[in-house]
């Protein structure tokens, strides 16, 4: 049975929250139920929502599996891997932009926009569509109960801008985000919970677009992250791209240069590469197919594991370098890791498993489904946040150092990477010129020495400092990172108590007003969506009523007076008309349905009579 | 310094930390910023029982963490954020030998690292030699003799680190009175320690390759 029973009478639905894994390739919802997290899926459905969106010529975009199917016939209007664009500016996404089948631009805050069918969409809006679909699936699995509180996972190595973009996407989707948590940490929750494990665990998370490694100590329900490292642009997509490059080179003899650069063609090639990659995880060799009837090209290329492993080796090496750095930060050697947990679909690649096993000299755990474990962990955290338990304590870290630009463009680190969050630190600053009345602060995130090499999180100015000789004013700048990993900075001049405070709005982010307007648009669409669904349901119901009435008239029309029969005929005509052609709006359909119901009441009574008589006389209903 | 409330206003249990009650889970708002030692209910001391500190961290974490106040009012949630941040910050200071010593030296009115930059005399001679080795390794290819020689330098630096830490411990145990001369000795050894740690970090960076550009 696909439905999960909830005690709605006690408003139980208000005391639950969903865990959502918003992935590069697939997204999934889960929830805590009866002492464990479960994946939420409607009956007969895996619950996985492919993170794909198709834009039809008219009407609402298709999201998920349908979009993936449509990508095969119309690659030019389907988007994948939107997560790789979250919180990024146009200049930073050049490599990924090559596999996007539509033009890209950026808005006035530097947020990337996809131009599809004459409209512009930010990654936040597109991710919101995916979140709505996951949410919709989850609520269906719950028997139609609306749950709006969610915990959403992000790669541990996501920076402030990428986290904020995820948060904005959830707001646009109308969801109430309880917490943003890191994917490898979520995975460890699902892993450690089941096993009551103790010890030091390395979570190796290679997904569709991102890589993270986290080293944790698990002890009596405490999940303490010691260090994390990663790459927000390294995942299965890059493995696909390696195959695409081989194919393009070999196809260059067969196809015109403009075809080789064509966005739709590249999208088809990418999908073919992905399919071949997946097959290679289960077979020693596989074919990559490409059929382009319009160009008369039928292309097939055999890849052996040995060949692709050589292509992929540099990618896998990059993940191991991250592992090395995480170990160094945790002040541990590979031999001191008790368990290795593999997460993310790309860890199904045999070469990845082998290299990870060799690196840690330990067989990794593969018994958990790498595609579900993150969503399950998010559900555990959702349960904790709803007050469900104090057994579990999650102590996560901030992945990147935070600091301020100093004179000369260097960075003064205020909070070091891998500090346990929530955390705070205060640093004193002063003026460098006599009678300087303001200080401008430039907040940066990253490990590089110079501010220009780090990511700018924001700038703010503390003004109104009383004129004093240089070096006299004492300005305390306080950084606070909350449990979501979000930063607030306050600056205070101590002699006057004058303070300035900003909640950091990272570059390449949406303003509150923009989120608000997108939220309204999303609600409008959700409303349209809702109406369309209701109309479709009503039409189905009318179809059932029309057929039942036709059958019923055959049995019992003799028992009805002329006026009633005319009423029924009138309602039937309208009912049949509603079943043909374009879908009428829900209000019209509701009227038609109600008229049918009213008109056929005497018929129903007559039929009931017949049934009763039949029962009394021992005949079967079909013989009445 | 003013004293914190000794007992929980809600359940009457004795406070282990001014941030909250480990008996009943009630958060407390301290009337002033507690020192790292006060946060953990410990007397200032360089010697520290690491296992005890960790037990306290986990126990207090289970009381203060914002995860447990998801349904609470905004002020309580903000207090949980602030107190957890205080706890973690205090732990960062106490758990690290150099950070703990640095805090004690400043707390006792000793010189800060900006006020006293000198290092032990014998140490300075060795610094020159290390720099030369490191420079040679940096200019050589990975796998070269100069690079492999770094393993020896690393071992030597780690020994130096131990020696400097032992000297810091001698200067700070038992805890000297305010502005005692041994605080200058502790600072000088801490400067050496910082230098060793920087050099070790450079060796590690060389071994791991160029830093990733994020």
Strands, helices and their partners?
The complex is a heterodimer of chains A (624) and B (214).
Chain A: E1 18-22, E2 26-33, E3 36-39, E4 49-50, E5 53-54, E6 62-63, H1 65-73, E7 78-79, H2 94-97, E8 104-106, E9 112-116, E10 119-121, H3 123-141, E11 149-154, H4 160-172, E12 176-182, H5 183-195, E13 199-206, E14 211-219, E15 222-231, H6 236-251, H7 257-260, H8 263-280, E16 285-292, E17 297-304, H9 305-329, E18 339-343, H10 350-360, H11 373-385, E19 393-395, E20 397-398, E21 402-405, E22 411-415, E23 419-420, E24 423-429, E25 439-445, E26 455-462, E27 475-481, E28 487-493, E29 499-503, H12 512-556, H13 562-579, H14 586-599, H15 601-617
Parallel strand pairs in A: 1-11, 11-12, 13-18, 15-19
Antiparallel strand pairs in A: 1-2, 2-3, 2-4, 5-6, 5-7, 8-9, 9-10, 13-14, 14-15, 16-17, 20-23, 21-22, 21-25, 24-27, 25-26, 27-28, 28-29
Chain B: H1 36-39, H2 50-64, H3 74-95, H4 97-107, H5 121-138, H6 145-148, H7 150-172, H8 182-208
Helix pairs in contact in B: 2-3, 3-4, 4-7, 4-8, 5-8, 7-8
Notes on the protein architecture:
The complex is a heterodimer of chains A (624) and B (214). Chain A has 624 residues and is an alpha+beta fold. Chain A contains 15 helices and 29 strands. In chain A, the strands form eight sheets. In chain A, strands 1, 2, 3, 4, 11 and 12 form a six-stranded mixed β-sheet that branches. In chain A, a hairpin with a 5-residue loop joins strand 27 and strand 28. In chain A, helix 6 runs antiparallel to helix 9 (305-329) and helix 9 runs parallel beside helix 10 (350-360). Chain A is globular and about 105 Å long. Chain B has 214 residues and is mostly helical. In chain B, helix 3 crosses helix 4 (97-107), helix 4 runs parallel beside helix 7 and helix 7 runs antiparallel to helix 8 (182-208). Chain B has helices spanning 36-39, 50-64, 74-95, 97-107, 121-138, 145-148, 150-172, 182-208. The mean pLDDT of chain B is 90. Classes of the chains: A alpha+beta (624), B mainly alpha (214). At the A-B interface, helix 9, helix 11, strand 19, strand 23 and strand 24 of A face helix 2 and helix 3 of B.
